[in-house]
Amino acid sequence: MNRTLLTAAALLTLAGTTFANDTTGGVSPHQARTAPKALPKVVMAQEFNTQAANLINFDAAAAPNLFINTTSLLSVGTVQFNGSSTQALDGGAVLDQSSNFAVTGQSAPNFLAFNCETTMADGGVPRLPEVVRFASEVSQVSLKIGSGLDVGAKVTMFGIGSQGVEKKVATLAAALKTVKFSKPLTHVLMSAGACKFVVDDISFVN
Asked: Which range is the signal sequence, renumbered to this chain (predicted)?
């Protein structure tokens, strides 16, 4: 399978007509049913500062509002995003907020979105697990997470670094909640939980 990397802006050319008015959770009842295509994962360019605060808000390029018009996110700058180790195409995808997860508190226009009940352009499923892997150990890691579609569902997260493992459990609400890790981390594993939710504004200090 061709895994050539492509920028998010270039991948957007795959998107056809969008259906903002009746789209829910990145899915429209009008979207075309097509066979999976061998497509690259999404790569977003971003520079990170050394010994300073950094923010990943997924807004560096335009994004579609339907999962069927994109593939899972591979990286933002030097930060890697990976889904299941056994299902290489799975993982969260960057969508425009018009994908309608019924949330507030996000930084417009994009976020990292999940919906275990649908598929993406290459046949991958935007579902957990998801690993956010930093190029080196970082501190003061935080992220926003929420859903207006799976209110009350939980997402279990593990921050992993040289000082051990730090577990967090987020209960989802329409207003995005900030989850903060106190230990230095090399990666964050979102291992289990909700089906339909979004993540935004991942902050860390190099």
From this structure: 1-20
CA 72 and chain centroid, separation: 8
Tokens standing for residue 134: 């930093």
In this structure, is residue 32 part of a structural domain? no
Pairing of strands 73-76, 42-44: parallel
CATH of the domain at 158: 2.60.120
Q: Would you write out the chain's pLDDT as a tens digit for each of its 206 residues? A: 333 344 444 444 344 444 446 899 999 988 877 789 989 999 999 999 988 899 999 999 999 999 999 999 999 999 999 999 899 999 999 999 999 999 999 999 999 999 999 999 999 999 999 999 999 999 999 999 999 999 999 999 999 999 999 999 999 999 999 999 999 999 999 998 899 999 999 999 98
In a domain, 1, yes or no: no
Tokens found for residue 128: 């957990």
Structural domain that includes position 102: 6-27+37-205
pTM for this predicted structure:
0.89
